[in-house]
Amino acid sequence: MTASTERTDPPDSNATSSRPSASMRARSSALLATGDGAVLVTGICGRLGKHLARVLHRDRRVVGVDRRAFLDKPKDIDHAQVDLRRKKLKDVFRPGDIGAVVHLGVMHDPRASAAEHHSWNVAGFSKLLEYVAQFQVPKLVVLSSANVYGPQPSNPQFLTEDAPLLGGQEFSDIRDLVEVDMLAQGFFWKLPETETVILRPVHILGSVHNAPSNFLRLNPIMTVMGFDPMAQVLQQADVVHAIELALRPGIRGIFNLAGPEPVPISEFIKLLGRQRLRVPYSLARVVLRRMWALRLTTFPPPELDHIRYVCMVDDRRAREVLGFAPRVSLEDTVRSVDEGRW
Amino acid sequence: MADTASRALARLDAAARGAPGLLRRLFGAAEQTTDDILERLLGEPFADRMSRVPLALGPAGVDPFGLDPQWAKYALATVAMLHRRYFRTDVHGIENVPSGRVLLVANHSGQVPLDAALLGAAMFMDAEPPRIIRAMVEKWAVSLPFVSLLFTRVGQVVGVPENASRLLAQGEALLVFPEGARGISKTFDQRYRLTEFGLGFMRLAMETNTPVVPIAIVGAEEQYVSVGNVESLARLLRMPSFPIIPQLFLPGGQLPLPTKYRMWFGEPMRFSGDPDDDDAVIDEKVWLVKQTIQSMLNRGLKERKHIFW
Questions:
Q1: Which H helix or E strand runs over A27?
Q2: From CA A207, how far away is CA A90, in angstroms rounded?
Q3: Are A157 and B149 within 8 A, CB to CB?
């Protein structure tokens, strides 16, 4: 391979990933040092992805990857409507100016099959990692979740980053999310030149359509009788802010992200002014299982553990190393689930 | 005759007219009234003590571990009644407990953990400034409805080492029973003889450089007299023990016997060294604490003239 052909397709992905060209390495270190280059955002068409794109594209070139169409896309964002598992993804990397990859494209649709989840989340992410390695992208930010620790009665009140990832123990449907986190962790030693950052935020609230936000949109909000665990929430704007911080050169490692101070779940309901419906656990489980089978709810029964046990994180590392502190107050974070509903 | 009747009627009328005001006072200032009642029953300024407890409360009026002073108040009031009126605890040397982080290490006895509750009451009612102690609970308790909620709100945490270190770093007083279930389920013939101590508390003290205050509690062993232990049943029910307590079959015997509790707080002990050292090395230090508590117990028993007063 000559220097003039550096922008062409490498002949064999395995050969190049093990022996990258000198020019590529030089470019990669230049991108790393300046923090320049385009930011590739997977899952850009999600609510969080769009929010991140709008914040990032002011300073840096943003390239989006999503199999969905980006409808109201700002003009200067390049969007590639490709499936992460397709070879076409490689074309996005080919120009060689990708300075960072932000992986938001994790599928968590409780209705999709386990096979679909695995193929998308694990196989798709492996493909992405392969290209990050091959094209020597200097930065990789993966948005994992504090759910990988899982709510357990034996959890310490605040989990640190080195706590075991037991999320799949009681809720096997999220094993692929744990696996994504593990794959990214493997990248720390597999490719030490790439600065890999894993963010594990607590429940993200906002206009996003995830389980915690949907839960707080219920009226009345169901809680389990006799349980009122402490919980942490984080506004989506704060997540975007943390990703921005993680993109700075020199940042690597795993960071738990917690929002404002923890409060009991009943406090969220109080802040929203909603009705509260207390249901005994045994009844709640039976009813939820029936409703789930009849497709009447979007909450899989194991998620009940989130309103029974604590799954809170210690965010000291994020505060000290990443310099992250939540900017949105508890009240605004909780009330943001009702904003922008249509 | 008619005069007294009409006067009584008039008084009734006045009472009826006064009723709405009374109701309003009852509901409107319910909290104020309960505080008053508590203070009258205990004869001490209870609410005032509560306000002087050093707590790190978050936005919902709850600390990071879920302790809610509003809940703790009622729990403490209940145990304070037991402490003052039922068991009439004598507390000695509580001034030995240093401010800031401290491990309270005590003997465990009495089939039901009333000793923990009374120790909590003593630290709240008799220590200056008043403190709410933290104890560690089994993780199965956390999976029980209401129990988990109550324990959390009154300041109990799940018994994992991470929580213990964090509480100590927060400057809390942490209660430890190194005998665990072995101690509380002793039969009557084994009373006031310490069983084997666990080593975890010593490693924790060394790791966090926390002073250990040895505590001897006399009076708990006689509250429920256990004459034997049905091991096969205990194994079947997966309980630490299945005590035979004859008094439970007597009317009113379900209540603990109103023995007089006596508590001795020893001088704080400090330990240094490698917390990950061999068990044998740690064991020597644990032995020191155990011997201190045993000799405090022996002295306490010798001084005691009567079990009930």
A1: helix A22-34
A2: 32
A3: no
Instruction: Tell me the shortest Cα–Cα distance from B152 to chain A, in angstroms.
Output: 8
For residues B89-104, average pLDDT:
92
**How high is the mean pLDDT of chain B?**
85
B142-193 pLDDT per residue, tens = 888 898 899 899 888 988 889 999 999 989 999 999 988 888 888 899 889 9
Quick one: B170 and B25 in the same domain? no
Residue spans of the domains in chain A: they are 23-204+232-259+311-327
Q: How many domains, chain B?
A: 2
Q: Provide DSSP, A70-118.
A: -TT--TT-EEE---TTSTTHHHHHTTS-EEEEEE------TTS-HHHHI
Instruction: Please say if the pLDDT value at position A10 is more than 50.
Output: no
Q: Which residues of B touch A256 (CB under 8 A)?
A: none
Task: For residue B54, tell me if it sits in a domain.
Answer: no
Output the domain CATH number for residue B205: 3.40.1130.10
Q: How many residues does chain A have?
A: 342
For the question of whether the overall pTM of this predicted structure is more than 0.80, the answer is yes
Chain A residue with minimal CA distance to B162? A156
Query: Which residues in chain B are closer than 8 Å to A311, comparing Cβ atoms?
Result: none
Return the pLDDT at B9.
Answer: 53
Determine the Cα–Cα distance for residues A254 and B109; give it in Å rounded to an integer.
45
- What residues of A are in contact with residue B147 (Cβ under 8 Å)? 226
Reported ipTM: 0.79
Q: Which residues span the domain enclosing B14?
A: 2-35
Contact between residue A232 and residue A258 where contact means Cβ atoms under 8 Å apart: yes
> Do residues B20 and B66 share a domain?
no
User: Which CATH architecture fits A23-204+232-259+311-327?
Assistant: 3-Layer(aba) Sandwich (3.40)
Which of A241, A144, A236 minimizes the C-alpha distance to A187?
A: A144
For residues B7 and B85, membership in a common domain is answered with no
Q: Which of A154, A225, A263 sits opposite B160 (nearest CB)?
A: A154
In the block, residue with structure tokens 């109701």? B23
Sign of the CA dihedral B141, B147, B151, B152? positive
Contact A153 B140 (CB under 8 A): yes
- DSSP for residue B220: S
Quote the CA–CA distance of B189 and B196 in Å, as a whole number. Answer: 16
Q: Looking at the structure, tell me whether residues B196 and B115 fall in a common domain.
A: yes
Residues of B in contact with A309 (CB under 8 A): 142-143
The Cα–Cα gap between A317 and A257 comes to 9
Task: Answer whether A21 touches B (CB < 8 Å).
Answer: no
Maximum CA pair distance of chain A? 69
Pairing between β-strand B173-176 and β-strand B212-218 as defined by DSSP bridges:
unpaired
Q: Percent of chain A, pLDDT > 90?
A: 66
Task: Please give the Cα distance from B67 to B134 (Å, whole number).
Answer: 10
Query: Is B196 found in the same domain as B139?
Result: yes
CA dihedral B191, B194, B200, B202 (to 10 degrees): 130
Residues B126, B90, single domain; the answer is yes
Residue B51 lies in a domain: no
Report CB contact under 8 Å: A156, B64: no
Tell me the shortest Cα–Cα distance from A302 to chain B, in angstroms: 14
